[in-house]
Amino acid sequence: MSLLKDSLDFILSHPETMPDPVWFVSLAAGAVLAGTAFIDARTGRVPDFPLLLGLAAMLFASGFYEGQAVLLYRSVAAIISVLVLWLFNSSYFFLLRHDAYGMGDVKWTGLATFIVGLEVVFWAWCLAAWLGLLWMGGRMFLGLFFWQFKQKRHIHFAPFLFISLLVSLYFSS
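-> structure tokens emitted (173 positions)
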């Protein structure tokens, strides 16, 4: 108990040695992205509630600790990414009468853009598309020999987005 109390006293008396709180919130929101991608892989649906909690936490942390200019920049980038994807999906639906991707992937992308920025998420989408195509091709090939791998009509895209986001973050830093 004394070690815990001493550690807490040290942290409270030396706040300048602690990282910016936005870092912790970004890490937690990143965990939300990972969790929702895992849920999408298992169920085929990206849940809204964890994404909304992650966005609310990031909005608060960014506005409180980084200032209004950074909050505005992050918000505009997230809104642009969501609008571009929504417009593309709406156009695709208008022409072909089915969605290009689910709107859960769009909301997932909005949170990811708010956390890491537009450029990283753009490259993550590019890489995720290729990973998804490779996944579909592999399943199609294996489906020729094993019925368990028969190709489905769609893929769950958030897991590919998350893997691609990690790769894009690695190469952008």
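Residues 68-96 form the longest helix (29 residues).
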